[in-house]
Design goal:
Helix content: over 70%
Largest sheet: none
Number of strands: 0
Structural class: mainly alpha
Shape: globular
Low-confidence stretches: none
Order of helices and strands: HHHH
Mean pLDDT: 77
Strand content: under 5%
């Protein structure tokens, strides 16, 4: 539970960026596959940023709760995909 709480605390500031990506993908296409691929691309870019020491030093508080980079990225991807899929299915229901 502590692990999930630490990851969710880290995801909270990234939520606005994720939501803006959802809106852009929704404008371009309402494809669920495109959304998942976009989220995967963003998570891979974020993983590459985590390899940079100066970036890792600024955002390294997730290491204090015992989360590895792989766990952080995989949980962020899963949470992000869940939020994106709910958002797209709600929008598709109204359109």
């Amino acid at each position: 539970m502590k692990l999930l709480k630490g990851i969710l605390a880290y995801y909270k500031p990234l939520f606005l960026w994720s939501f803006s990506i959802n809106i852009i993908v929704l404008i371009v296409s309402q494809s669920f596959l495109l959304t998942i691929l976009t989220k995967l691309f963003v998570v891979i870019l974020f993983g590459l940023l985590l390899n940079d020491f100066s970036v890792r030093k600024r955002i390294g508080f997730y290491k204090m709760v015992g989360v590895s980079n792989l766990k952080l990225l995989s949980f962020l991807f899963l949470i992000d995909c869940l939020v994106a899929s709910i958002f797209i299915f709600i929008i598709k229901g109204f359109v």
